[in-house]
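Troubleshooting: if your tokenizer reports a length mismatch, compare against these two reference records.
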Amino acid sequence: MEKKLCVIGLGYIGLPTAAVFADSGWKVTGIDTNPIVVETLNKGNVHIEENGLEEIVDRVVKNGSLTARMTPVNANVYIIAVPTPHNPDLTANLNYLKSAVRSIIPVIESGNTIIVESTIPPRTMQDVVNPLLIKEGFITGENIHLAHCPERVLPGKILDELVFNNRIVGGLDPISTEVAVDVYRTFVKGNILKTSAENAEMAKLMENTYRDVNIALANELTKISENLNINPLEVISLANEHPRVNIHQPGPGVGGHCLAVDPYFIIEKDPVNSLLISNARKINESMPGFVVEKVKQAIGSNSTVTLFGLAYKGDIDDIRESPALKVYKQLIDCGYSVKPYDPHVKQEQVDFNLYSLEDSLKNSDMVVILTDHSEFKLLDWKQITGLMRNDYVLDTKGCLNKCTLKNYFNYDNLYELKPNTISLTY
């Protein structure tokens, strides 16, 4: 029997997932509500930047293993990989998930398997997804199989990690777990860990919450170290020599669809007992403002600031929840002329002007590095600063390791950036 799979949502997770399944013997139909995405994929092209994705999509589209359309079709397995954004009160907006489930109800049949990969709050499978199916006469574990298998991949390495990372599979019942495990065994080479849907939901959230809390610790250390004239990067390096210590690196904040979002899904379910998680979120959310304060401390609001990087991490084009966008807005609100440059981000992704490298530096007084793109590390920085009106660099990502520029500031020497450090010349 032909293995037919339908993937709902063709974004940063859904498209690579669909492509890998299609390259592993499945007949895959990808579903997206954006007609431009559908048209692009059916031409064998991609609409997102991810290492190796363009090649695999071109291959599976040409051999007929992957097609895209806007409405679901009959399949053996349905994978839902739609986003879970925030409501204004930071609770999870499950409208995309519920819409995706409703969209497949007209085509699912007895014996089908439905897997949700979207990141969701605890008990969403049991309290939200399952009731939608029960209402239509489906009984999980009897005439349908339902499981949660959260994605756990790193942008830039998604194709590799889809195959080699361990996967968590949590069914609403033991039969659903086993059936879903068999689906992923067609290509996953890592271990497949069986559990309940509730445990799978919480495990995914805690993976990213752990990292968010750890980064908050590093960011708090940075603020404390500035006040005490201490080098926080050296402190972290020294502390991490302990065999049971692994402090993460500080930065301008936390971005992406996971770290900046997932902790809130735990907080909304039990705000009374999630105090550490809540405080970590507040610390990391404060970092764009901290960066802006360092700029204000150095140069007046009639100055021009160049932002290097808008993506939330290096060498990708993903700007979701990026702290760089918050830095941009806050600088604009403070009266600065701001010129962003990012070699990976396209103009259509943002609602403000992007600049070329050279244009972003003209008449600039300070470069603020917010993303650790490889391109920034490879630049001739003495030539770069020579193009500027004033040659100051604030590196929030530690891109320029052992930089010898005279007017270079990193988190390791912020205490040297005192008021009036920068004497502007116009």
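Reference record two:
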Amino acid sequence: MKPGDMHPETLLAQAGGAVDMASGGVVPPIQPSTTFLRGPDYQPVNPANTYARDHNDAVRQAEAVLTRLERGHDALVFPSGMAAIAALFRAVPGGARVIVQSGIYWGTTKWIREFCARRQVVMSEVDASDAGALDAACAQGPAALIWVETPSNPWLKIVDIARATKAAQSCGALLAVDSTAASPILSNPLNLGADVVMHSTTKVINGHSDVLGGVLVTRAPGEMWDAIVNDRAGAGAVMGPFEAWLLLRGMRTLDVRVRRMCDNALKTARFLEDHPRVEAVWYPGLESHPQHVLAREQMPGGQGFLMSFLLRGTREEALQVAGKMQVFHRATSLGGVESLVEHRHTIEPHTGIPENLLRLSVGIENSADLIADLGQALGQ
């Protein structure tokens, strides 16, 4: 069976067929060389490899798996998620307009605002989870790019990707989707019409909190994609062979990790929703979430591992709850095998995040232990 014929879970477990035929190893090798031999005629010994900035077997293997997972045309991995975002926006012409979802990961918003100011790119911010608001933003005139994040971090809003695709087409824009909090296991934005999908592979795709990375996957070739390919090669925003190898290794368990995390998250969210000290829970898998139906349609395999909840209490009480947790680690990130809790207002108080909000990234532990930890921290 060819890798392209495999189901996602088989493709992942087999690392896209990247075995080592030279040694017989069932895992791919790491080639750390930065340069590659040429023969007496000065032609490359291996035509695929001349210099590591452009040519890296481990990177190509990871990209091939991610391309197939997202059912795209091509993929490029980067040394971080922000490097991937930067490469995409650097392909936007100076003086053009971009439409960016509001209330998304603050690091993305901050960088895009500063970039647009430097490059004289007009930036329109809109709550893209409100389809009518996105339509209205598109009606204001042509745009080069629409950037959305679904589920959004930390508000857990869901963007209707198919509807956003039509909005993008109405103003001549490409639609790019940050699908980090969904993963390719739960959602494939390219199948819904998006032009580019981005993941911070630092998060659930690697899943072990030990590799920085990002990826862009395109639905089809085009001028903008060619510009991104050229930019990465020239600017050197490349991932090293060891990091790419670790990324590929992490992906081998992606399917089973995501499914366990989603199951744990739903149980955790239901516990929190029923707790008297909790004011509200934002998790798309709950029937109480205002976009639950859309989330189930767009993420049929599960509604993710990320959630936020509001404590009935003050900032100090929220910090006390986080401080009492023993299984959830107090750390900034998401998507790892270990569960994390974060007080977002401490990290970004200027963004309007409620002081009583705690964000959870649910891992693969036993759900009973996670719920017991939350119970003792909240007070049964």
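Descriptive notes for reference record two:
- Residues 254-378 form a domain with the Aspartate Aminotransferase, domain 1 fold (CATH 3.90.1150.10).
- Residues 254-273 form the longest helix (20 residues).
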